[in-house]
Every structure is written in C-alpha cells, then in structure tokens.
User: Fold PHD-type domain-containing protein from Scylla paramamosain.
Amino acid sequence: MMANPYGIFPTMPTNSSTTLLCAQCKKFFTYMDSVVLCDGACKRWYHSKCAKLPENKYRVIQDRDENRSLGLKCMWACKDCRDRPDTGRDPEFESYVRERLGKLSQVLEYLVTKIQDIENRQKSQEVEMNKETGDALYNFTGNFAGASAGAQDM
Assistant:
C-alpha cells in the first residue's frame, strides 16, 4: 500500500477530542499512513491496509468531493458496521442504484443484440463472398481449361 498521496489526513477532523488510533490495529496514525473513516455507525478511523481496502478503492473514497460533483456517493463502512443488522440504509441511494442498473442492463441488451446482428451480417457476407469467389474461380478455371484446350487444337 502506498503512502497517503492526499496529504496529512485529508478528511480527518482536527479537533483534539479525536483519537488518532486505528480501530483495527490500535496503532497511532502517521502522516505517511493511508487512512479511511468508517461512514457506518461507529465513525472510527482505520489504516486502509487494516481495513483491507485496495488502493483503487481508497483513492475513490478519498476523492469524495470530486466524485460527489459527478453525482457519485462514495462511502465505506467497516466490517462491524456492515455486519450490523440495524445499519441504516439510504433508500434514495438504493433506488438510484437500482434505476441505473436497470438502464445499464437495457444498454447491455441493446449492445449484445447489435453485436449479434453485426456478426450475423459478417457471416452472411463471408458466405456470399465465398460463393462469389467460388463461382469466379470455377469460371476462371473453366475458361482457362477451355482456352488451353483450344490452344492445343491449333
């Protein structure tokens, strides 16, 4: 895991009441650590390595402001909060995700149909081309054989 490319705890609160310990390993954070805040009920901080958060996901979470401007909600919850049955869900966000997945599914179906149409057209063109090539080859060899037979008669 690479060092925190976003500076010293880009989203970490600066008030003195905040404990700067990883909730998993219980070690203090350093300015080089990649850290992430649980958006679940506990609101605890974790080293991204302790949270088993891949670098690419860590970057997305740390770029929250930029992602929100694109209309994306970037949240991460620790295992304890994810396993908690009473975790509050965002029905608006879930509805949005279901809607987007439905649209993506329609687009995917459309693209698969188009690809199949293109493949079928390509196959029929190949068959037609092979037929034309075969006819032309037959005519060529037939004419050639006839021409050579005529030449031998001379």
Remarks:
- Residues 91-153 form the longest helix (63 residues).
